[in-house]
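Section 5.1 Outputs to date
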Amino acid sequence: MPLHTKVNMNKLEMVQRNAARHVFQDFSRHSSPTSMTKEFQWTSLEQRRLMARLTMMYQIQHGLIDIPSHYTTRSCSRRGHPITLQQVHCRVKPYEASFFPATVIPWNQLPASAVTASILDSYKAKMQLTVLHNVYDFTVSTL
């Protein structure tokens, strides 16, 4: 079963929820592992994967890694930030869940101050604030 399916993502999230119970040593059925993970400020697997994809896209767009940026096309739209990318249209679900198609939409939702940052650490800080505070809807369609 592919890793990007909701069922598998939930199974992996359960590992983190169980870890929170062990750290707190609270195994009561009435306690909330969600509040425990929030208290530790642990991010979800989905958020960590999204932030890693967005960081990789920043590095591609700014030439910091040796992956050609011609795999993505800049949008001609005047809306959004200066590095807005054209959305990739997919006919099959596995391709839709691959890196470029799954990353373009959240990338385009980032604020201009993040994507135009000249330093990677500055970008990461601004991007994390945006993703973690749910300023935009970064949900990715799951299979």
